[in-house]
Amino acid sequence: MARKLLALVSAVPVVVALNNGLALTPQMGWNTWNHFGCGINQDTIVNSAKALISNGLDKLGYEYVLVDDCWQADARDPDTGAPVEDKSKFPDGIKAVADQVHSLGLKFGIYSSAGTYTCGGKFGSLDYEEIDAKTYASWGVDYLKYDNCNNEGRAGTPQISYERYNNMSQALNATGRPILYSMCNWGEDGPWNFAVNIANSWRISGDIYDNFDRYDDRCPCTSMLDCKLAGFHCAMSRIIDFSAPLGQKAGKGHWNDLDMLEVGNGGMTYDEYVTHFSMWALAKSPLILGNDVTDMSDETKQIITNDAIIAVNKDTNGSPAIRVWKKPVSQGGDIQLWSITLVNYQWVFAVLNTSPVNQTVDISLLDVFIDQGSSFGSGTFTLSDLWQKDSSGNWGASVGNAQGTFTVSVNSHATRVFKAVPASSSSRREFETVDDPHAYYPGGDSRELLL
Ligand code: GLA
């Protein structure tokens, strides 16, 4: 088996990512847009940065504080052409805000568009890449989100889009400052094919909408593979669908961005936000909070601080989860099984129920371990439930051993996420990766399991 696996691994093409050393795991942070839109000022940013710290979110990895659209003045500096901030919102200047964010131990990011204007109608960076990148670097910017509005028709083939986005990539690199480059061209022209070497992440779809599954004609595509109008108002579970075939294109330093999180913004239930957070983590999307972190409910905090789920996103095996199957259910919607390989003999699988009714589902470990082969998948595994706390209050309560097929109950619109580790060391030997004694949980063999 080990030899067979090695052969499989070496058949996968090696991709060289953008060489800025950033986003070796998907970036995490907070962004102004989903909650505040254009209604931002320097206090919004600094207060949110402080809230990241007072809530312990920085310790969990949320490190980037990101200013989205509408920070700009009405026009560039008429003499130099340099970008200028709106002084009514940022009286002390962007640099002073970046300095404050840095003094809190966090990183600072900004937004522009690869167009003449941004989506909010402010000046964009098209043909101003060099001076903009230099100015951002001089302000201490660590991250650029680079949008796609008003691109003057410079899209339509991967090469045209590549050139437009590569201009900013080169300009950022030329500053000598490590600046994470987050492309936001909504999946147009297939950035997962052309942006791997120029960006740290790329949006895969039109803008997220804070709703589980409402269809909206403004997000008209059913798949992003040949989508001609990415649009916006894309319900959360539709973005999960969009992401399913694209995981194969992501890896260390270059990620599929499923868009910023809506957890805490009020449009979804607890179970729906659990699905949102879980699936973004398993898809290895950047985890960028989009709520008001200065004013959060306990439920919101519970979700965004689930360190067992965050650990899946941060696992150093850079391959996103695969969707093993999706089965329609009679009441509408479907049940989906997703599976992801982590380092050190650990796997995680998720059972997602997009249907309007609660379901009980038979899950076969042969499906969970579809890529590892049937001799491995027929072994016994110790499972923990990553959305259940153990007696010490830690996420990831142990739920026993499983072999073969077992039954999982999943509420409507909810996702159950389990970690699986081989219950015996002999099955671990089939995977000659880094040995980590903490990954081994001995246990008995129970064949009947209801989760
Ligand atoms: C686009 C982007 C959003 C946001 C807005 C700002 O719609 O996709 O994420 O940045 O622009 O105007």
UniProtKB/TrEMBL annotation:
Catalyses: Hydrolysis of terminal, non-reducing alpha-D-galactose residues in alpha-D-galactosides, including galactose oligosaccharides, galactomannans and galactolipids
The protein's name in its UniProt record: Alpha-galactosidase
**Which PROSITE patterns does its entry note?**
ALPHA_GALACTOSIDASE
Against PANTHER family, the record matches this protein to: ALPHA-GALACTOSIDASE MEL1, ALPHA-GALACTOSIDASE/ALPHA-N-ACETYLGALACTOSAMINIDASE
The molecular function terms in GO held by this entry are: alpha-galactosidase activity
Q: Name one GO biological process term.
A: melibiose catabolic process
- EC class, as a word, reads hydrolase
Extract the InterPro entries matched here: Aldolase_TIM (IPR013785), GH (IPR017853), Glyco_hydro_27 (IPR002241), Glyco_hydro_27/36_CS (IPR000111), Glyco_hydro_b (IPR013780), Melibiase_C (IPR041233)
Q: Which Pfam families does UniProt cross-reference here?
A: Melibiase_2, Melibiase_C
The source's superkingdom equals: Eukaryota
| Sequence ranges assigned to domain Alpha galactosidase C-terminal in this UniProt record | 333-419
Q: Look up the signal peptide feature and give its range.
A: 1-17
Asked if the keyword Repeat belongs to this entry, the reply reads no
EC number(s) given by UniProt: 3.2.1.22
What family does the Swiss-Prot or TrEMBL record give for this protein? Belongs to the glycosyl hydrolase 27 family.
Enumerate the UniProt keywords alphabetically.
Disulfide bond, Glycosidase, Hydrolase, Signal
